Amino acid sequence: MNKLLNKKALKIKLDSRSKYLRQLIVQALVGGGRGHMGSAMSLVEILRVLYDDFINIDPKNPRKENRDRLILSKGHGCLALYSILADKGFFSKKLLNRTSRIGSIFGGHPEQKVPGVEISTGALGHGLPIAVGMSLAAKLKKKKHKIYVIVGDGEINEGSIWEAALYASKHNLSNLKIFIDYNKIQSYGFIKDVVNLEPLCDKWKSFGFDVSEINGHDISHLRRNITQFNKKKINKPSITICHTIKGKGFYFAENNPNWHHKNNLTEKEIKELNYCLQ
Amino acid sequence: MRKTCLESVYKLAKRNKKVIFIGSDLGPGVLKEFKENIPERFIMEGVSEQSIVGMAAGLAIEGYLPYINTIATFLTRRCFEQLVIDLCLHDLPVKLIGNGGGLVYAPLGPTHQAIEDISILRTIPNMTILVPCDAFEMKNLMSATLKWPHPIYIRLARGGDQIITKKNRKFVIGKSVMIKKPQKYLFLTTGIATQMALNAAKKLDNENNIKCGVIHFPSIKPLDTRALLKWIKKVKKIITVEENVLSGGFGSSILEFCSDNLKEHTHKISRIGLKDKFADDYGDQNSLLNKNDLNQRVLYKKMLSLIKNS
Q1: How many CB atoms lie within 10 A of CB A73?
Q2: Which ipTM was obtained for this model?
Q3: pLDDT, tens only, A224-264
Q4: Closest CA to B240 of B187, B300, B191
Q5: By CB atoms within 10 Å of each CB, which of A248, B52, B94, B189 scores lowest?
Q6: Residue B124: closest CA among B233, B210, B221, B215
Q7: Of B48, B50, B59, which is closest to A133 when you measure between CB atoms?
Q8: Which residues does residue B238 pair with via DSSP β-bridges, in sequence order?
Q9: Whether A133 and B62 lie within 8 Å, measured CB to CB
Q10: Contacts of residue A57, Cβ cutoff 8 Å, sequence gap at least 6
């Protein structure tokens, strides 16, 4: 890991747009009274850059044939996805207030019925194999659109991820781009203690991927990385290991396994969440 | 039956450009002609049922019609969560062709014997379960799978099974097949249990002058409830027969239907199927069927004793 990716570098200050998207996440979290807070906060910038600068989508026609596809394989990070989709106009931001409540279309894991959500995810290790099928379909149809997949670091404990990696490579799926939200914490605790993933770059290289490693909160890193993916003419799938901080933007939640999932929020916690966004 | 089924997939692929075949490390030379003539839609992956089902889901989301083939146990046990979430939650038109339903793989031991596939798949919303009894029916049902908009599990028998259905009969998913019209007594069957029941019914007729009917259910889900409503009321005794464990299987589905819709007739129904245990021996399919007391002789005796004691 290079110096740009050390803990200090990941402490990058959030700009107003990143804070605004986090505000929408807090709105959904407080409205629903529960959610995977830490897991959503670590991937905000990955989604932001993809949706702001790269993904070809039309909120008025979410199933447009030539759209780029984004699959949140780590479905538990869905509050961040709801946040960016609401911001892009797929649905009203007000609806986020009722997340996980009876009658809402937004659950604790994303479902296909939500405008802009490609597939239902939540059980881990499913999004990538499905994305491989979608990439294969695009290739068979000779379509130019891209398939972006965000997987969690804990998620890649699943064997199905590595099965899919073999096939992405076998079929030379150059239209497939994976991002790993490498926030170093899974449900029980720190990744290194539960099941160490290192050397992670080498693992993916050995599976035949074009591998890059960036600061997942640095907008310019992300932009540069995805631009390169779009420009490169290589006959293999790509993966970007995004070093991130779980609970990014909230001092009490950052790198704190207790904020992986949160329910029963206290008044004090709600105040602190809002304070951090000022 | 397997050969007929896979050849049908190739024929469908020639007719419809959306049809894709995905195998999971099948034997050498499988569908050689398909591979040679339509290589882009012939995919042979490794031993990885979970990601294969996911991949098929992705292809189906994009409009393709994937047919996956491997051994039934691997296609139902190993990737159960993928069947539930990737295929059934998204309600995608993916077809699962499971080789060796029931005890076909007797010599290979319990790891390869699909004794509970019907039970576990029945519990999944949106899943369709088809269990043909012979090669003609197999061939006829394949055309019906093409336009069916939901996931389908097709349970294959060993092959070379006694032919009892008509060659070009139109197969309708959700409909039963009248094999022998009942008077007072009736076998309700699925898969190759149909042949056993038909032979038992013939024996009852020949040796005891008892007119016993056989209705075959190649479609376990959806179930032909119209036929059940009509015939259960009319007869006095019913035996359901299946090459699957009794818990949650075909017979259970009949009892559930009866309990919900024809409560006063539930007492008429007895079930015969595989025992609640793993095979502890090898041999061939018939030898293990005999060990499970599942053969035409047992069906004959059971029906006779039910009639005598009624």
Answers
A1: 29
A2: 0.96
A3: 999 999 998 899 999 999 999 999 999 999 999 999 999 98
A4: B187
A5: A248
A6: B221
A7: B59
A8: B186, B269
A9: yes
A10: A51, A64, A67, A68, A88, A116
Q: Do A134 and B62 touch (CB under 8 A)?
A: yes
The residue in chain A having the minimum alpha-carbon distance to the alpha carbon of residue B44 is A167
CB pairs under 8 A between A and B: 91
Q: State how far the alpha carbon of A71 is from the alpha carbons of A76, A134, A144, in Å.
A: 12, 10, 17
Residues B227-243: pLDDT tens digits?
Answer: 999 999 999 999 999 99
Q: Do B41 and A129 touch (CB under 8 A)?
A: no
* Residues A123, B85: C-beta atoms closer than 8 Å: yes
Whole-number Cα distances in Å, B140 to A8, B172, B265:
66, 9, 33
Question: Which amino acid is present at A234?
Answer: I
CA–chain centroid gap for A1, Å, is 21
Backbone angles phi, psi at B221, to 5 degrees: -145, 115
Q: What is the distance in angstroms between the Cα of B234 and the nearest Cα belonging to chain A?
A: 45
CA gap B60, B58 in Å, rounded: 5
Q: What is the per-residue pLDDT across A6-64, written as a single tens digit (0 to 9) for each?
A: 777 788 999 999 999 999 999 999 999 999 999 999 999 999 999 999 999 999 999 99
pTM over 0.80: yes
Number of H helices, E strands in chain B: 12, 12
CA-based nearest residue in chain B for residue A126: B54
Question: Is there a contact between B59 and A136 if contact means CB atoms under 8 Å apart?
Answer: yes
